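Exercise 7. Given the encoded structure of a 291-residue chain, write a plausible sequence.
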């Protein structure tokens, strides 16, 4: 899997001054567009679209400093419809406009080429199981929140704190299947998974019940396959490690890929909040095989 991902990265470099289609990258990697975006962002730490933008403007920056082409020629070459659009994008990455960079020989920022390697430490095993589930419902309270890659999400924290205990108890009582009890559900994420894009967040339970109270929100989840991962340890570090290991170790080593659908996290913390047991449900499907 990682070898094919690296072939897709090589394709990006060969076509950096042309339109790069995610469908073609996914074809090279022999996976779906959805899973390719997920894998890339998990391994690289930034969305695919952002990596391509930074690489493109890194190379464009070298051409700006070289002075062999006009700024408009460089802008057009790298897919910008006007000098103004190029200048805005250039400044966003380099902190200075292209004209000023050329006049003053400014120091520019560089996005290095990436390649992926699997590092197997062997210090711990990952507990997982694969589950087939019939259609179910996620029922609880929903909010549209921005995506935050690191640290606590203030919008989610404020949202959950604003739900009164009576409502929480009514939601909890609706739980009738795994994962049991209150869960955090993320759905309808932007394909780029870029910082600040929005998603639907549910403070909810998983249930077969269809008689949802009018004051609660519901999400119908079709039948499908789920990979369920478990770990325990210091909170919140254990959760961050779990997410990282799923996409950097488990997917590259197993014949599955992620598919569209909600991601469900069940967390149980100790009374002092320092330790946690986590169970992460990821929608998956069998990956295509070579040949």
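Solution.
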């Amino acid at each position: 899997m990682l070898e094919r991902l690296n072939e897709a990265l090589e394709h990006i470099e060969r076509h950096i001054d042309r339109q790069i289609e995610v469908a073609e990258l996914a074809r090279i990697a022999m996976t779906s567009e959805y899973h390719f975006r997920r894998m890339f962002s998990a391994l690289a730490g930034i969305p695919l679209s952002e990596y391509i933008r930074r690489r493109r403007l890194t190379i464009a920056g070298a051409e700006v400093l070289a002075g062999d082409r006009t700024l408009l020629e460089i802008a057009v070459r790298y897919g910008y419809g006007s000098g103004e659009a190029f200048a805005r994008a250039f400044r966003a990455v380099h902190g200075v406009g292209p004209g000023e960079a050329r006049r003053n020989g400014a120091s520019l920022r560089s996005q290095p080429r990436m390649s992926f390697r699997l590092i197997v430490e062997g210090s711990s095993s990952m507990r997982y199981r694969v589950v087939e589930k019939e259609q179910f419902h996620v029922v609880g309270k929903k909010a549209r929140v921005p995506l935050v890659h690191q640290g606590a999400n203030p919008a989610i924290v404020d949202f959950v704190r604003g739900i009164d205990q009576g409502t929480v108890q009514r939601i909890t009582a609706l739980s009738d299947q795994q994962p049991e009890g209150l869960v955090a559900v993320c759905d309808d994420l932007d394909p780029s998974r870029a910082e600040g894009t929005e998603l639907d967040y549910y403070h909810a339970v998983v249930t077969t019940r269809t008689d949802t109270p009018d004051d609660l929100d519901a999400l119908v989840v079709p039948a499908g396959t789920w990979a369920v991962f478990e770990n325990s340890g210091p909170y919140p570090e254990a959760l961050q490690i779990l997410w990282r290991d799923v996409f950097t170790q488990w997917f590259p080593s197993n014949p599955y890929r992620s598919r569209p659908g909600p991601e469900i996290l069940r967390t149980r913390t100790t009374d002092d909040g320092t330790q946690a047991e986590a169970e992460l449900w990821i929608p998956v499907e069998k990956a295509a095989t070579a040949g």
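Remark. The chain is about 40% helix and 25% strand. Students should compare their own answers with the one above.
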